[in-house]
Give the backbone structure.
Amino acid sequence: MLKVENVKKAFGPTTVLDGVNLTINPGEVVSILGSSGSGKSTLIRCINGLEKLNGGSITVDDFDVGKPKELAEARKRSATVFQLFNLYPHMTVLGNVTLAPVEVLKKPRAEAEATARALLQSVGLGDRADAYPAQLSGGQRQRVGICRALAMQPRYLLLDEVTSALDPEMTAEVLAILAKLAAEGTTMLFVTHEIEFARQISNRIVFLDKGKLLVDLPTADFFAAEGGMTNPRIAQFLSKMRKD
Amino acid sequence: MRFSDFTPFDIWLLLQGLGVSLGLFLSTSLIGLLIGTSWAVCRFYRVPVLTPVITFIAELLKNSPVLVQLFLVFFGLPGLLHIRITPTTAAMITLSANSAAFVYVIAVSAIESIGRDQIEAARVFGLTRWQVLRHVVAPQAMAFAIGPLTALLVNQLQVTSLISVIGVVDLTKIGNILNLRTLKPFIVWTVVGLLYYLCAKLLAWLGARFENRLRAHAAWRGLICSK
Amino acid sequence: MPFIVQLFFFYYGLPEIGIYIDAFTTGVVALSIAGGAYASDVIRAGILAIDPGIIEAAEVSGLSRRVTFTKIVLPIALRTSVRPLGSVLINMILTSSILSTITLNELTGSAQIVVSQTYRPFEVYVVLLVVYALLTYLVSLGIALLHRRLNRDMMEAVA
């Protein structure tokens, strides 16, 4: 279980997260919605330990990310996919996907490569294993990023606006893969602007506004008139973003 | 009788040497700046014959050791032209030319970093090439060039130490003299090195201050738009 | 600090503390130290210029500091630093001429000997100048080639 308890984070004088509480159970797919600056990405960055908390705690399967010794264990249980891909430019696609399993999980190279090739095959990049990131399109790079994360066999998959840097066609590619993962039972926490997508595959929707968690509801309730929409801020947000 | 210890007079000697070094540094840098920028302007106007010649000379001066250039001027020219030349004159000529070559490169890249469209706009309004140069190109180029120029000048200050080899009594030469007399190289050369270092630091600081003054002024005027 | 001062420091100073080494070794030591200082500056800049997102991705997948440094930071930084390191190398070739002042007969020193024998300083030094310029030109070509080869895979394909 991934627990976020009363988390506070400030950058200098600006408070970005203000007492956020969240629990993710295995198998759940949770999306975090909110406008820019609401603290969504910061929350993900706190969970994977890139940002230090100013208050509260986050535990991944009872490993506290605030404690350096437990952080390493916590990081083995989660994997992150980034908005700007952050692939290693000097390594092939295969190298990117196998680096962490070999170095962190201490898997034998042959096994890591076999797993990697299988993953790449499942996202449609089976024949590009020896290509370099510079030779791939944005959508392909993000798919590699997803494989790199999955290769660690994480219990929690963290996705930070993974389609925001892609054009509509590539976005559709990546979303299809994410939908498949969700259907297979992967625990996912994702920050996104794709509201329709969130609606289709999430179990729960969490709405952040100016660092505060306004609501945390099952998907159907969030979009229902008597549920999430009663909150004026959410109604305003949805009316601006939805295409209908 | 040999005085192999340091005397207070040595401080005066060091300062004299420093004075010579700085004097030569400042004058050759100034001349180098003038020559180098005029070469860059030549290139800006695309003067037909001069430009490739200038580029060739600049490349040669940049990619060869200053020591060899000094030898060429001090030992070579008198033989060729049958004139007598003092070490100081040789140093002046060589260092000015060497600085000019590097200034040329910096000036060219500074001028080129100004968008062509601004120059076109100015021309379309009827400004002559000279007016464009004076009002549009020069102020902006100067602001761009200050950084690299400061670094260049700091380097050229170190380069002046080579003139001691052809006999100019600069700081390094004084160091040699003191070293031979007192046979205490660690002290002598550390002090000499320290003096050069302090001057370099001072120069870098002045450059940074000047750059800030220029940038504050220019930014307010809106001359620099960060793309 | 001027290289010649550093050089004199070693050449005259080391015998004072009992280390007697020949001019060649002294020259090598002095030039290596000076060049190393520049090179470390260049590599440091290369390391700082790496996209921080890449380091974050490595950190988050649990890679230790050591592994991140050896397998990600260093390979990328060295590839991008090839050109500036090349200019450090060229700088060192030119600075080596200063070693002639401590009785070392490298290129410039040998040229001085030729001058003293032929009494034709102008021609000798002009040739010397051209030789150095040619040498640096060849090195810069080599560096450009090396840079292209190493960075081939990292350069964006033109869409």
